[in-house]
From TrEMBL:
Positions bound to ATP: K55
CDD domains: STKc_IRAK
Pfam families reported for this sequence: PK_Tyr_Ser-Thr (PF07714)
InterPro entries, per database record: ANXUR1/2-like (IPR045272), Kinase-like_dom_sf (IPR011009), Prot_kinase_dom (IPR000719), Protein_kinase_ATP_BS (IPR017441), Ser-Thr/Tyr_kinase_cat_dom (IPR001245), Ser/Thr_kinase_AS (IPR008271)
Name of the featured protein: non-specific serine/threonine protein kinase
PANTHER family per record: OS07G0166700 PROTEIN (PTHR27003), PROTEIN KINASE DOMAIN-CONTAINING PROTEIN (PTHR27003:SF435)
Enzyme Commission designation: 2.7.11.1
Amino acid sequence: MSLVSERPCQEYPLDMIQRATDNFDESNLIGKGGFGKVYKGMLYSGWNMTVVAVKRLKPGSKQGVQQFHTEIKMLSMCRHSHLVTLMGYCKENEEMILVYEYMSRGNLAAQLFKFPNSGLRWEQRLNICIQAARALQYLHTGHSDMVIHLDVKCSNILLDENMNAKISDLGLSTIIPANQREALTTFVQGTRGYIDPHYRKSNKCSTQTDVYAFVVVLLELLTGTHVTSGRVIPDPDVTHLAKWIQQQISNGSLNQIIDQSIVHEIAPNCRNSFAKIISKSLQIDPSKRPLMSTVVAQLEDALAMQTGTNPSSSLVDGDLHGYFNRFDTTDTNSDDLDDHFNPFSTHTASHDPGEDFNIFSMHANANAETSDNHDSFNIFRLTSRLRTPVTDNWKSKCEFMLHQITFHTLVLYFLCTRHFHK
Ligand SMILES: Nc1ncnc2c1ncn2[C@@H]1O[C@H](COP(=O)(O)OP(=O)(O)OP(=O)(O)O)[C@@H](O)[C@H]1O
Ligand SMILES: [Mg+2]
């Protein structure tokens, strides 16, 4: 299907928008951006009331006029559960206004950077990036024409009351028609820190331009810092970010760049695969970066590793070494990305699997006394992840002991009966 307007959005009269926002009262202001101010509003239609976000173009913005039209065109054609819904627009007198569904938790940048320790847990961060990635995948592949967002960044990912993410702002987006399969030459636009270096140099953008920007968002989610703050992530204009993250991986210093409020929550194999996605997708050569569909699949795998629902994260295949290190802040050995530590292959020389469980218990208990809630949470999760193999070990041990008891009872019975017969 090529991109033709499927459901043109509604046109609202200006007086309806004025009523909805108390005539753009500052008390309803919820944000400000390059386009203009954003207000919270209540749209009334009969007995129905809908909460909306109203984005009002600031006067005199030429770039804004173009964005206004692109936004209406794109969001009328592209509808996805993780793309913000444009409910309508208003173009009256000098006013140009966009009306969106209201996302009560605002943008991801505010959640992440303005309120550090705001409680965005690692699993929530993973869910947010998977949802945003799905929306981008839809833009890239949902129609025969490809849509490139060109302004992917944390402040363009909005969150609803359940922390579900939606991509917003398609005002800078562009279409690569179905019959044109190579990159499109345009003037460079986007936001500093997120712009693909290849695009900046060549003026050629493609779906891989969005992959780069999106992965900068992943890096921000991992480090809890803004790409341009210079606090953890080096300036992408002067540093090859892919090489930098690869260095952190091979030096075993990944944990030092991770947001300290979540570092103890991340399962090592999840952390490693997340870092791998980042380093691959930040490569300068766009053809070496994975497609968005691959990024989605890899992020889903990473989530499964985190939650323990993936077979590759079971005790046998997973990185138990990393799990031990989770309680050891020096964590020196678990950063080798391709190193999948098999606890049985190295421990069986001196311990049987049952003893491995005891070793783990000692680590967990020793640390539980001094750890905070996150560690207790990890211990709980780890115990539950270990449950299957441990239960099996104990089951076989019990069965063996039962056999032994039965055998010895029979021997005893045999000897006794012979003795009394004499
Ligand atoms: N649908 C919405 N629901 C709730 N809040 C919104 C909505 N749309 C925008 N906002 C808020 O308004 C802020 C300003 O939005 P806007 O898209 O104009 O600028 P920005 O993306 O923050 O920055 P820039 O103009 O550089 O792209 C957002 O960051 C967000 O907090
Ligand atoms: Mg925005």
